[in-house]
Amino acid sequence: MQSDATIPFNKPAIVGREMYYIAQSVLNQHTSGDGPFTRQCRDFIERQFSANRALLTTSCTTALELSAMLLDIKHGDEVILPSYTFVSTANAFVLRGARPVFVDVRPDTLNIDEKLLPAAISPRTRAICVVHYAGVSCEMSRICEFAEKHSLAVVEDAAQAVNSRYKGQYLGTIGQLGTYSFHETKNFICGEGGALLVNDESLLERADVLREKGTDRSRFFRGLTDKYTWVDIGTSALPSDLLAAYLYAQLEARDLITAKRKQIYDNYEAGLSSLFEIGHLLKPHIPENCDSNYHMYFVRTRDLETRSNLISFLRQRGIHAVFHYVPLHSSPMGKEYGYTQGQLPVTENMSERVLRLPCYFDLTDREQERVVEVIHSFFG
Q1: Distance, CA of 216 to CA of 231 (rounded, Å)
Q2: Which of 43, 120, 189, 220 has the fewest CB atoms nearer than 10 Å to its CB?
Q3: Rounded distance between C-alpha atoms, residue 62 and residue 195, angstroms
Q4: H helix runs in 177-292, sequence order
């Protein structure tokens, strides 16, 4: 049975003045990088999230790559990170010649298991890159204490965690560097985009240079030099001001967007509660010291077969739900680094059971009720 009214997994939304600001960007006659709306987004992030310095980038991938450059990661270095993440988290450091050291995740939050860090460190370890899965923070106090003890940098991959907090501090502002994503699947969007948060004062000036293709162009525009030239390695990391215009309208609606996502989260929690109680599904977990941005709502099935059948059952009824990451350590590239199946048992188990449900700003109550009804129907 196929329903005519399809419920997609994600749908980008216009929530405020996006189109007006895009038109204004064109009228400003500055649609390339670092225009007026880029500066407004930067100021908003720095002010609202108490960030030391926020630099808009073309993606979170670019921000991660800039992080690896800023930390001077070199061939032979090692970087600790979870295997349960998007490939960009590892690629950023691999591109600099580092070896990824994959660590298992916690079964409650699916974040890197801080208790396993001592076993992962070696004389070659340079940094820890944490991933705040689903907008829920890693255990940052213990991770930062461990990193400081061993003189390691901490990079926060907060792609999914813009506007989330840990013990009152916004994610992305805790480690030396933080990265955000504004991809259309995230809470605050501009199609493709990201940001690098530079929290270490000693990295500020070089961050500007690397982001500006290795030139001191930003110093030139601040009147600190009479010309600019090539002074370091770098990349083209500036997004169009058209994208920043769209993003600024989304950031202005931060509270509205977060409230809607919390409503969706709470509705799923209530609607599926009986399935949680009898053990058909396992619900997500938010620790007490974490304030989530409700980036996604995911459940965990009993096993891979159940998940596959449930995805198919939902899709036949016009509902698109998806699984998430294939663990990096079990990928072809992971095997090239010597990893094998069975090394990270929690990651492998959870990756076969996670199911992400539709979650986007324009999802209606009736559509969500339909998703819940079909899931109940699957379990009989």
Answers
A1: 7
A2: 43
A3: 8
A4: 204-211, 217-221, 241-252, 254-271, 273-277
Q: Which residues, including other chains, have CB under 8 Å from residue 355's CB and lie 6 or more apart?
A: 298, 299, 300, 301, 307, 310, 311, 321, 322, 323
pLDDT higher than 50, residue 1? no
Q: Which of 224, 252, 280 is the last residue of a domain?
A: 252
Mean pLDDT of the chain: 96
Residue 142 Ramachandran class (φ > 0 left, ψ -120 to 50 alpha, else beta): alpha
> In what side-by-side order are the strands of the sheet with 290-291?
169-170, 165-166, 290-291
Does the pLDDT at position 220 exceed 90? no
| In a shared domain, residues 207 and 290 | no
* CA separation, residue 39 to residues 28, 53, 93, 267 (Å): 13, 11, 28, 37
Other Cβ atoms less than 10 A from the Cβ of 77: the count is 18
If you count them, how many residues does the chain have? Answer: 380
pLDDT of 154 over the 70 cut: yes
Structure tokens belonging to residue 135:
């907008």
Taking a C-beta distance cutoff of 8 angstroms, is the pair 139, 23 a contact?
no
Cα(306)–Cα(309) distance, rounded to whole angstroms?
A: 5
Does 26 lie in the same domain as 150? yes
